[in-house]
Amino acid sequence: MDASWEEFGWERLGNGIGRRRLPVWDAAVTLVAGADAVLLHDTGSTLREGAEVRAQAEALLGRRVTHIALSHPHFDHVLGTAAFAGAEVYGAVGTAELLGRGAEELRADAVRHGMSERDATAAADALVAPRHQVSGEWTLDLGGGLQVLLANVGPGHTGHDLAVLVPGSPVVVLCGDLVEESGEPQAGRDAVPSHWPAAIDRLLELGGEDALYVPGHGAVVDAAFVRAQRDQLAVRFGVS
After folding, report:
1. What's the Rg (C-alpha) of the chain?
2. Which alpha helices (H) appear in 42-172, and where do they start and end?
3. How far apart are CA 57 and CA 196, in angstroms?
4. At what angle do helices 47-61 and 117-125 cross, to 10 degrees?
5. DSSP code of 15?
6. Chain centroid offset of residue 229 CA
7. What is the DSSP letter of 134?
8. What's the CA gap between 11 and 139, in Å, rounded?
9. Is the peptide bond preceding residue 185 cis, with omega within 30 degrees of 0?
10. Spatial distance between the Cα atoms of 219 and 13, rounded to a whole number of angstroms
């Protein structure tokens, strides 16, 4: 099942697990395939990107994406969701309400960052809010003994940060933009700096020392990188 990840520009992280760094904003999407179901973490920044990820997932795995976990409600991570008709969508509690009233803000933010008006408007008009909202932890059974944990670890990068723990050897933690490798973590108006280091502590508790940590942007990192970034953020925001 994993033989062709690289042919599609994906990085294999384990059995049935692969991720891709999308162009332009370098946002990561990750697939986790169990025997019965397929989870996608984040969906890209446009309907076109979402459709491309969907097609690649189906070509790689021979079946469709059944579940989606949105790491946080920023345009480059959520605007491709409508390309996955029928998938069950999960987000941290509050994400659905935010996306329900915030389509125009997401559209405008995407345009400010260089997206065409046409692409931004099409994606915002089709915006899909999570049906399932995670207030603490939620276990998804993907079949074949694979159970992934969705954990509301925020606030931090936003008020609604959802991480995913994929057990295995190695353990894989999908961090969203709580961790970034290809640039300094971005703290916008919706960031909660006073809680961000604690959110990263939670990621480290989930994954442990030997896990692979998948940032929202950039290369896969280890626990030492995550811990160092946590300490840098604590200094930056004046948080112990």
Report:
1. 16
2. 47-61, 75-78, 95-101, 103-112, 117-125
3. 32
4. 70
5. T
6. 18
7. E
8. 25
9. no
10. 12
Q: Which H, E and C letters describe 187-236, residue by residue?
A: CCCCCCHHHHHHHHHHHHHHHCCCCEEEEEECCCECHHHHHHHHHHHHHH
**145 burial via Cβ count (<10 Å: 0-12, 13-18, 19+):** exposed
Question: pTM of the full predicted structure?
Answer: 0.97
pLDDT tens, per residue, the chain with 240 residues: 455 899 999 999 999 999 999 999 999 999 999 999 999 999 999 999 999 999 999 999 999 999 999 999 999 999 999 999 999 999 999 999 999 998 999 999 999 999 999 999 999 999 999 999 999 999 999 999 999 999 999 999 999 999 999 999 999 999 999 999 999 999 999 999 999 999 999 999 999 999 999 999 999 999 999 999 999 999 999 997
